[in-house]
């Protein structure tokens, strides 16, 4: 009872508003109101995870498995605003919420039994220290909670790379070459892995990470992101 009173008091002093539209949130709404949740540009790639425009994008970069994205990315659209808030406005809760919502969709399709572990794409330690968190890990936390699958940081980024935003497909591939490695003590032998990131454009980063995991003995690696971009 005291906790509920305290929460009501805090909400009165520091009102919680939807990060998309600014409306006041109900207690059951973590950071997006129900209206904004219902208007998200869902991609539904998990409904045809083995054969969609994302699987064709990564074909030839890694053994093709499931490739999924929760949202469709569009410039100046809702997905871009959410990703910008997540990465540059110190709002890790957005990543957790996107993971939670996407995880519920995957559970609805009875896919949660397909993976043993969720692995986020790592940030370089310098970049993570500056941001304060890894947005891909926050997404993974939400997925982990919804699907009851453990989250493990099994990869590390050995080199600091330039941003991929304005690079061509070839430049992106070259930029992540030999960047990732398995963490010391990490063991992925025989594991079915869901590798997660914030956005997929060319797929270069995700495929570089996936190939490290496969080379180290993972049974298979599926890919999931918050949004799917162009190119």
TrEMBL record:
- Which residue ranges does the record assign to the Phosphoribosyltransferase domain? 136-230
Give the highest taxon in the source lineage. Bacteria
InterPro entries tied to this protein: ComF/GntX_DNA_util-trans, PRTase-like, PRTase_dom
Positions the record marks as coiled coil are: none
Which family does the record assign? Belongs to the ComF/GntX family.
Q: What is this protein called?
A: ComF family protein
Q: Which organism is it from?
A: Algoriphagus aestuariicola
């Amino acid at each position: 009872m005291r906790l509920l009173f305290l929460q009501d008091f805090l909400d009165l002093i520091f009102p919680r508003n939807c990060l998309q539209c600014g409306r006041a949130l109900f207690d059951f709404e973590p950071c997006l109101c129900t209206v904004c949740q219902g208007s998200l540009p869902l991609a539904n790639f998990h409904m045809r995870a083995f054969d969609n425009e994302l699987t064709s994008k990564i074909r030839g970069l890694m053994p093709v498995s499931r490739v999924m994205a929760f949202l469709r990315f569009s410039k100046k659209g809702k997905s871009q605003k959410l990703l910008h808030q997540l990465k540059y406005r110190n709002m890790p809760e957005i990543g957790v919420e996107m993971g939670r919502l996407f995880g519920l969709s995957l559970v609805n399709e009875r896919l949660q039994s397909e993976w043993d572990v969720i692995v986020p794409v790592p940030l370089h330690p310098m970049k993570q220290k500056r941001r304060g968190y890894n947005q891909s890990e926050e997404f993974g936390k939400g997925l982990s909670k919804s699907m009851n699958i453990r989250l493990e940081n099994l990869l590390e980024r050995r080199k600091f790379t330039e941003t991929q935003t304005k690079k061509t497909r070839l430049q992106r591939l070259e930029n992540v070459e030999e960047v990732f490695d398995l963490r010391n003590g990490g063991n992925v032998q025989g594991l079915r892995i869901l590798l997660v990131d914030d956005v997929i454009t060319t797929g270069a980063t995700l495929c570089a990470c996936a190939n490290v995991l496969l080379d180290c003995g993972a049974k298979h690696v599926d890919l999931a992101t918050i949004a799917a971009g162009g190119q």
